[in-house]
Amino acid sequence: MLNDIKQSSLNIGTLGHIDHGKTSLVRVLTNVWTDRHSESLKRNMTIKLGYADAIIKKCPNCEGPGAYTVNDKCSGCDGTPEPFMRISILDAPGHETLMATAIAGANIINGILFVIAANEACPMQQTKEHLMIINLLGLKNVIVVQSKIDIVGKAKAIEHYKQIKEFIKGSVIEDAPIVPVMTNRNINIDVLLSLIVNMKKPETAPDADPLMYVARSFDINRPGATVGEMKGGVIGGTLVRGSFKVGDEIEIRPGIKTESNSKKETYKPAITVITEISNGTEKLEKALPGGLIGLSTEIDPYFTKADGLVGNVVGHPGKLPDVITSMSVAYHSLNRQDIQEKGFAENEPLLLSVGTLTVVGYIKKAKKSKLELDLRHPICAEQGMKMAVMRNMGQRWRLTGYATMH
Ligand code: ZN
Q1: Distance between CA atoms of 150 and 404, rounded to whole angstroms?
Q2: Region of 188 on the Ramachandran plot (φ > 0 left; ψ -120 to 50 alpha; else beta)
Q3: The domain over range 323-405 is classified in CATH as 2.40.30.10
Q4: pLDDT tens-digit profile of 117-169?
């Protein structure tokens, strides 16, 4: 139980049309705006997951959905709710980035809040594309959040609810709960929280060889720190299986760049020791899957500064997937309405997002949907991993589909 509060046990992603109220929903659940990365994301198509934690509390005096809150006081009885569960909400701004994140993060994200606003007819084009992603990835742990019901009034909200029901009919989320909410007046947030705490938790296999995706890395030293004061580099990310404890020897793959030219980059795995584990505010004895955790290490902070190690994976030495520079994938088009997709050409570059890494791959051979790719940047990937595929169209990267490594 204690660990359920210190460390997140669920990573929840958000999907939904761009103006449908995802940010204000996340704000109500966590008191944090998650769109802080939006500026850097507009410039290039890079996956930078925004994590925002929420501590869901439960009132000891109340029963049912009304017992759950993120506030310090129970609205039902004025009692003091107690911390019950920590969750992490993963968000990404923009329509294409959001979809790419959902695909690339398929094995990081455990559940989805699918936000659909009541003040527009359902489905809007982006909403349709998001349901397609949910269907393709077979995501079943989904709660549909009907937002902005305060704008439309009761009759319209009921009509819109029926539109949602009709829209999801026949999809993998046909039976998903639909919760109408008013974020600005805190209405039905308790019902949403009660559904979140009952979401199916991932099987975390605590005894498996650990695998962590690095989503952040930094240098925590103040400028001008002396050698004696220097602290080792810190890496932050999400464990998808297994566990780490302080003192563990770890390997980071593909690791540190040793050589780089126009054709190729060479990397060397880094081996180090975990000197401290943190959830961002408190120290942890052990790291388990869920949320964003920080590992302090003995790596030279020169390599970890400014997200230098993002996209790496971390595990116990010798127990990580192989580092590869070429791979075969099966490509699946999203058949997006506004994109005219042509056949693949030899040497065409593709932007691939997998886990927390975005890399360029060149097509060596294309046979229908089977692609053989050469990677400029080596990656540490496993069979069956799903990656978002972006193609260069008119000077822009557009998300056109996803690929499965085989
Ligand atoms: Zn109460």
Answers
A1: 42
A2: left
A3: yes
A4: 999 999 999 999 999 999 988 898 999 999 999 999 999 999 999 999 999 99
Give residue-wise pLDDT tens across range 290-331.
Answer: 999 999 999 999 999 989 999 999 999 999 999 999 999 999
Query: Rounded to the nearest whole angstrom, what is the distance from the C-alpha of residue 58 to the centroid of ligand 1?
Result: 8
211-315 CATH fold:
Elongation Factor Tu (Ef-tu); domain 3 (2.40.30)
Query: How far away, in angstroms, is 73 Cα from ligand 1 center?
Result: 8
Ligand 1 center to 74 CA (angstroms): 5
The hierarchical CATH code for the domain 2-197 is 3.40.50.300
**pTM for the structure as a whole:** 0.91
Ligand 1 centre and the CA of 78: distance in Å? 6
Q: From CA 232, how far away is CA 189, in angstroms rounded?
A: 42
Question: How far does residue 82's CA lie from ligand 1's centre (Å)?
Answer: 10
- The 3-state DSSP class for residue 95 equals helix
CA of 220 to the centre of ligand 1 (A): 42
Distance 79 CA to ligand 1 centre (A): 5
Q: Where in the chain is the domain with CATH 2.40.30.10?
A: 211-315, 323-405
Distance 186 CA to ligand 1 centre (A): 16
Measured distance CA(298)–CA(369) in Å, rounded: 44
Instruction: Give start-end residues of each CATH 3.40.50.300 domain in the chain.
Output: 2-197
Q: Looking at residue 335, what DSSP letter applies?
A: -
How do 211-218 and 234-241 pair as beta strands? antiparallel
